Amino acid sequence: MALVSLSLSLPSPAASSSNRLIASTPSPSSGCAGSRRGLRAASHGSLTLTAAPGRRGDVRWRAPVSLSSFSSFLPPFFKNNKEKEDEEKAARLKEELLAAIAPLDRGAEATPEDKARVEEIARRLEEARPAKEPLKSDLLNGKWELLYTTSTSILQPQRPKFLRPYGTIYQAINTDTLRAQNMETLPYFNQVTANLVPLTSRRVAVQFDYFKIFSLIPIKAPGRGKGELEITYLDEELRVSRGDKGNLFVLKMADPTYRVPL
Question: What is the pTM for the complete model shown?
Fold first, then answer.
């Protein structure tokens, strides 16, 4: 239960007469009118001076319960309600997002209108339940399957369709070792590993170290092989990320036990 903290502030001598505390007691001329009106009080700041009818001279200070003080009891209730609403909204938006990207071949077949729609849904999902400190969450660890991206370097839309990556594409992250790995399957089975450097609680710098062609031939990555990645939405099943070049990535969890090679 929240605690109520009441602060008492007294007027300074320099305060104007309109701001001074006023005590009001029933006068003899008012007769029983004062008792009919009940308690009369004048307040200043968080202090109130009151006089009870029929008890002349019985003047008491009291600290009224202000709206701000009373509201300190309410946040846990409203917070729980808001969290529930956000979870329900996020669940609806997840379904909407998955339905929107399903026919788009990971984004390779997306029209400008498709991209705009996916972007809008992703933004609403990020706003409904933004990722909080995902780099400290175990939910981030494991192998994720790429469902959608706007990255042309991954999709290779300029190539004939049979030469594009058409097998499953994965990205793995381990927060304890700060390692990441991108893995293509058919037709090339290319891989790249990287070191991660946290920049904030949800954004990392990515420094690629080794590429593997056909998963066999290791090639040291050039020094310019770097970028950034921000985790903007995260739960047990779905991750939304954004790159430093403005690319959007939507992924689903495939294997939470997977470990990236050191």
Answer: 0.70
